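DM from R.C. (forwarded with permission)

"hey, sorry to bug you on a friday — could you get me a structure for this? deadline for the figure draft is monday and I only need the backbone to look sensible"
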Amino acid sequence: MIIRPIHTADWPAILQIQDECYPNIEPESQQALHSKVQLSPDSCYAIERNGQLIGYCLAHPWQLDQPPTLEQVVSQPSHCDTLYLHDIALSSKARGLGAGEQVFKRLIDNAKQHNVTSISLVAVGGAHTYWQRLGFKSRIIDKSLDGYPADACYMVYPLA
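My reply, with the result:
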């Protein structure tokens, strides 16, 4: 398994994996997803095995407690104190490989190198239990999560 930067040729596979992982959520546009890579190419990854894309990760610097909306095209915020983990999506071909944990360890290293105090995300589809196991804590914020599915849960992983 190889974790590498996202290339232009990866987008069809990324969109296919998004569809596979989120069948009950309106898919985000390539433009919205690509904006995350443009903002922070060093924290966005393609996960490849045997020459085939089996997952992706999109993360970027952001402001704590102010998660972007799902379809938001992001640009550099005026204040960054968290690495916002937009998505780690893995196809069924990635099961059992530990890809999610490997990518998450890389994100922790990236966040520490950029001197942010946390990694944050919005968990959907019941994924909050997965993120809790990795050390994320649920957090109530003032910003509305209305654009997300009803079970959306804002979570933060503090970096010591």
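R.C.: lifesaver. The longest strand covers residues 52-62.
me: no worries. The chain has a mean pLDDT of 94.
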